[in-house]
From TrEMBL:
It comes from the Bacteria. Residues 29-130 form the Rieske domain. It comes from Caballeronia udeis. This is Rieske (2Fe-2S) domain-containing protein. Keywords: 2Fe-2S, Iron, Iron-sulfur, Metal-binding, Oxidoreductase. PROSITE patterns: RIESKE (PS51296), RING_HYDROXYL_ALPHA (PS00570).
Amino acid sequence: MDKNMSETLVRTGPGTAMGNLMRRYWVPILLVSEIAEPDCPPVRVQILGEKLLAFRDSDGNAALIDEFCSHRGVSLYFGRNEENGIRCSYHGLKFDRNGNCVEVPSAPQACNHMSITAYPCIERAGIVWAYMGPKDKQPTPPDLEWCNLPADHVFVSKRLQESNYLQAMEGGIDTSHVSYVHRYEVDEDPMHQGTKALDYIKADGNVIFEIEKQPFGLTLFGRRNGEPDSYYWRITQYLFPWYTLIPPFGDHSLAGHVWVPIDDHTCWAWSINFRPDRPLSEEEMNDLNAGKGIHCEYEPGTFRPRANKDNDYLIDRQAQKDKRAYSGVFGFAMQDASLQESMGPIQDHSKEKLLPTDRAIVMARRMLYEAATALQVDTDPPAIDADQQRVRAAGALLPRDQKPQEWAVIHLLDGKGQPIYSI
Ligand code: FES
Ligand SMILES: [Fe+2]
């Protein structure tokens, strides 16, 4: 990838082309549980390179404001969350959830010009989302299936990834790596084991991809031999600008990710499991809370994984030899993150030599780049309209002469009312 395109894609701070594009969508900011109660302690969050402060005001509204006081730049993290606003501890200026300065004790007349940045917030799927773009362009709330299910049908986690968002997200789009780094994990993991899908995946390692450009992003069709008269298709969705939907295994829950830049060197990897048809069972919840499936265990009191770059992700060379862990690292999330972080905080794209299996990420890069540059001349970004977000991922056995694209148009594009297709 050439330098200009790479720089455009990886930089997401204020004023950058990609940063402007991402700011046109609702952005997952933090877990609702991090600001659970009215007047709870505020939480520092950095998103798209901006240092911000999240809190819940006395009326119970989630709020996201500039971290720093407009007076002399003190962090409002050290302020008091009281009576519908944050009061700076230094000289007592107070800001409400809209960023308005509502009190300047020493000079009440100065209030009007002391306001700070604030972003509107909504809560969906246990996540506080903010809209960080131009005020007159605020889209309708996200309508991905997992965003609007009853609370007990969805499990959401986030983990810190110490790399640029792009190389993290590309792992979600590049499904060809599953046959390697995750090869043994699928047999042990409670959210994958014992499914017919694994028989097909193992019997046919030579997956053939067909990729379809969509108004919302990309659909990836991965073909393996199924029964003598059928193919097993794994159908993955990529949605602008940072969502992936993963095909399910057997009767296990559906899943997806969101990859959100913190700054250019770190991102949040959000991981979601959901059941459209029923609440998650106690057993499923126990596994999810224990960091199974696409989730992970943490360093206590943080969202940094317990297996991280400072301990070489707890690599176990014996497990590598014994074929219990392909790379020696355990867990889907850390298998991916270890390799993606090993590229460096921002992969040097001038040195990569892409292969045919990289076609999907090449297309995703190109679409993001085109959307970001088109926005500079005022062309609205793709898939802002929530109507375009109702797609589903699936695993399906289809007759060998059936085109999966035609099947997907009928069964997955407005997937919400459909049965779950999973093998
Ligand atoms: S720095 Fe915040 S009130 Fe003075
Ligand atoms: Fe992976």
